[in-house]
Amino acid sequence: SNIVAIVGRPNVGKSTLFNRLLERREAIVDSTAGVTRDRHYGKSDWNGVEFTVIDTGGYEVNTEDIFQEEITKQVQLAIDEATSIIFMLSVDEGLTDTDQEIFEMLRRSGKKVYIVVNKVDSATLEVAATEFYSLGIEKYYTMSSATGSGTGELLDDVVADFPTLDYKDPFEGLPRITIAGRPNVGKSTLTNALLDHERNIVTDIAGTTRDSIETLYNKFGHEFVLVDTAGMRRKAKVSEDLEFYSVMRSVRAIENSDVVIIMVDATQGWESQDMNIFGIAQKNRKGIVILVNKWDLVEDKKTNTMRDFEQGIKDKIGQFTDIPVLFVSALTKQRILKAVDTAMEVYKNRQKKIKTSKLNEVMLPVFENNPPPALKGKYIKIKYCVQLGTPSPQFVFFCNLPQYVKEPYKRYAENQLRKHFGFTGVPIEVYFRQK
Ligand code: GDP
What we know:
Order of helices and strands: EHEEHEHEHEHEHEEEHHEHEHEHHEEHE
Largest sheet: 7 strands, mixed
Function: GTPase that plays an essential role in the late steps of ribosome biogenesis.
GO molecular function: GTP binding; ribosome binding
Pfam family, one: KH_dom-like
Structural class: alpha/beta
Subunit structure: Associates with the 50S ribosomal subunit.
Radius of gyration: 24 Å
InterPro entries: G_ENGA, GTP-bd, GTPase_Der, KH_dom-like, KH_dom-like_a/b, P-loop_NTPase, Small_GTP-bd
Number of strands: 16
Distance between the termini: 33 Å
Strand content: 15-25%
Bound molecules: guanosine-5'-diphosphate
Helix content: 25-40%
């Protein structure tokens, strides 16, 4: 989907806007317990158009004495990766040198830029904001965090200007798999190992939101498309050290795929950046397979080594642990075909549609035997269930008092679905509704 980046110097109010954009959505998406809140990245929608928002300020190490260099790096990244850029200014400090410098970068980029003057809380400040016309611009939006005004007009325009993708997808209907992970975990090695001696069709559709490189893989009875963002790697080379960069890159690739293979380095373990990638895949409801790579480097392997390593990861990732974890070596090619098989398995699980009759036949007795706990003397009865026609599995359970069904029971319902129908590697949503 389209990526909207919010840029500006520290303290202009980037995070406030970011949080407001996420508010309504986050409440729905994060209702599943255990979802990690990544405060710098989120999904939003306006008038039914979905988009991704990135708060570049979320990556500021220390907002008080942030270096100029750091700010320009972030702006450059936004220019490289985002569809549209919201450039925030603040009326209370007026136009600063830093503002001017950022604006210069944005102007030269040719990207769609929306200039927003924040903290315009009164008519007097509305007049003061006209100072920003000195940038030589024709239009700016004013916003007030205090009154909450201004967001609507801005978003109307942002969403209306999104580019329309009018090209034919050459791989339509084929599973799309992305290999994600921190730098140096072995992503390129795995990609090369998989594609070795293959004749590939590579499409590099630049200038659209789908500007990742997609390679067709057709071997060992599997046909799928590897989604890679190697091109973006080249563009933003300077900033490869930034977590922000790797998150941006992952977001783009993950959104374009069905299954995400998250690679971890066996010699390093599961770290916060791995958690970030996991969170993005989970929020986007993509299939997930975890590969612990460089297993060849782990010496002195005992019977429990794998089990302990896997448990270590699962202890950290929260509620959603029904995920395959494989121990591989991209270098020696140990178990990499198993990894492909597993990714395809997860793809099938994500596509799976349970017939309504079968679903009710299995789930209604399950609920009858173990109903939700009664609340205030009222009994909850689940009468009917359906799977929605969404790209990833989502289920609605109709009952008399949905508001009384609490989180633990929702998780119970999810686990029962997993147990009876097999959704390994796939995030599931369950909703309880009034009939
Ligand atoms: P990327 O940044 O994730 O694409 O990582 P690379 O594929 O470039 O790998 C980084 C380094 O780790 C290279 O020197 C690889 O040869 C090495 N490497 C990758 N996979 C393995 C593995 O399974 N075992 C060992 N021992 N080294 C590996």
